[in-house]
Structures are given as C-alpha cells and as structure tokens.
Amino acid sequence: MYDGKKIIPGLIIFLGIVTYPIWHNTVSGKTGYVPKPKIPADKKECVEPKALIRVNHKDLLDDWKMSVVRSGIRTYQASNKKIYTMSLTRTCMNCHQDRKEFCDQCHNYMGVKNDCWDCHMYPKELKAEVK
Amino acid sequence: MELNRRGFLKIAGLTFLGLAAKPGWEVVSQIKPMESSPPPNYFSGKKWGMVIDLKKCWEAEEGSMESINACHRIHNVPSFQSIKEEIKWIWTIEYEKTFPEHIHDFNEDEYKGRSVIVLCNQCDDPPCTKYCPTRATWKREDGIVMMDFHRCIGCRYCMAGCPYGARSFNWRDPRPFIKKVNLEFPTRTKGVVEKCNFCEERLIQGLLPACVEACKDKALIFGDLNDPHSEIRKAFHGRHVLQRQPKLGTKPKVFYIV
User: Fold this and answer.
1) Inter-chain contact A119–B189, Cβ cutoff 8 Å?
2) Do B134 and B117 touch, CB atoms closer than 8 A?
C-alpha cells in the first residue's frame, strides 16, 4: 500500500470522529438512561389501565378532542364503568400536575413533538405565571 | 441425518407455525379498543339566538363593558394595544356602521353615534364555514357556528367570507397579553382564527352565555328560537326587529330591537 503510514492513522482518526456520539454517550452513562415519568403518589388509578394508556393515550386524547369539539359530548365512560370529564386540563393534568415531570419525560426521550401546550394550560404552569 | 423432501417440508411447516405463534397470539389477546359513551342528541331541535334591546343598552351608559369584559375574561381573549392585531369576540361599533341600510335623513339625530354591541351573528346560512378548506369551522345542529382551533390552519378565508368582521386572527402568541388566564378554557396560539362561540361550553352546563349573564340591565336576551314560548320569542312581540345586513342572506340569529 502506498502511503500506508498516512492512510491508516487517518482512517483511525476518521472512525474515531464518526463514532464520537456513541462512545461519548457510553462514557457519560447516557446509553443506560430510561425516562422516569413521575406518577402522582396519592392517586391510585388512571382513566384506563396503565398498559392501555401507555400505548393508546394519543388516540384517547384525540377521541376526546373530537368528541368534545365536534359532538359536544364531554363525559367519558371508562372500561371500569366510571364516568370522567373529557378534559386534558381538568382530568389528566389534575393528577399529573406538571407536564415537565410526566409528559415530557418520554416525549423528549423519544423525540416526540406535540403542540398541546401552545393552547392548553396545566395547573403548575398557571401557578408559576401568577407568581 | 439424511433429510428427504417429505421431512424437509414437515420441519419447514412446523418452523413457520412456530414463528406465527407470537403475532397470532397478539392478535387474539389484543386489548379491546376504547369506546366512548353513545352520543345522545344534544343539539337537535334547538336553535339558539340572541335579542339585543338597544333601548335598554342606550338607557344604561357604559353598560356594554360589563358584558365585554366578562366574555373576554372567561375566554382568555388577549388585549393587544394595536387595532390591527385586535382579537374581538364581542365589541361595540356605531349605529350607522351596524345598520347602514337603515340610515336615512330623519333618524340620524336620535341614533347617530350611539354604540351598538356586536358579536358573531351565528348566521343560519354562514358564509364563513363554506370557505374553510379544513372544516375547522362549521354550523352545529343547534345553529352555533363552531370553531375547532386544533384544525385551523390560519388561511383566513373565513375572515374574508364574514361580512361582519366577527373573526380575528392571532398574528402572534396571545398568551403574554392575557391578564389572567382562565384554566377552564384554552388559550389560542399563533396562526389561529377565533370568534364568539355563543358560550357553547356554558350552554352545555345549563348556564347562559357570559355576556347575557353579565348584563345587569337585561338588555341581552338569549334562548331557543324554535320554542314559541321562550323569552326570546316573546321579546319580538310589538317591537321593531333589526338584523345586521339582512339583504346579504346570511340570516343572522342575533337580533336587535329598537
């Protein structure tokens, strides 16, 4: 190989730079990071079972939105026959008071962007604004 | 081990069956989709309307501000200082601009310059909804012209379509311009059109619209136009009833009595 003395170190440096994000995260321990959404300690149950909410909360909120805005129906009968008000602010955020501790944990981790909070408020935000 | 054709097919078949077991189980064991409560007929048979008694309005000086403030407070309507960016749900304009076709030489002195409270007319034949390319605005069965802020793309065709200027556009984030945010109603965001919703969120709770409730002089009367015994229908008797620009054929459901 011509110029092997230059090419091989050059390749090693190149690979080092390209794989920088991987070993940087490995060294700083970020690869083991798992999002930790904070569950309110005093509240025992969600609107629907945890497994269902975890997968389908987006569809649930979408259905609620359609139902409230389009059909004017504001109550939701959950699978356990309990009746809930269909409201992000008053029902969901009544327990999960701060989106930064709950919603954003997974959304940020997964790189999910949503624009709920452009319009909808949550109690913690309002308290901060009043101060 | 010698593998003949028959043996190979047996093993291959069993392998595929094994691979199919997990997805197959998932299909069978899938959690049932959520169902919302059956939709009762909330809207049918009703036709909400409003009557504004201009005599009562004019007798009480500065009365309209109570209604305007009440509406803007509960609906998180921002107060921008510039007229260009102003968000209007309910506001006042001069008599001659409200009813241009009723102006003639002999009534001018009496009515000239008097302020008239105006809001979205909740037209029975609304032009705005026909322009909306995303169906973000539509007429509900009970006659309320609704807005779905989620769906609005901010094209402002509806604003061009509304002959009453009842729709406003958010040129910038309105939240910093709201004095005190009401948690019960969402704020809007940049790039969304908004207007009066006849307090549909209050009607469903059995409450009157905020402007009607706030008006101490009972100049605003709200009710079901389809019910011949309603207060609103009784208010029509023996009075001269005006609508804003009726010749346009939009059939406003906000009436003015003088």
Assistant:
1) yes
2) no
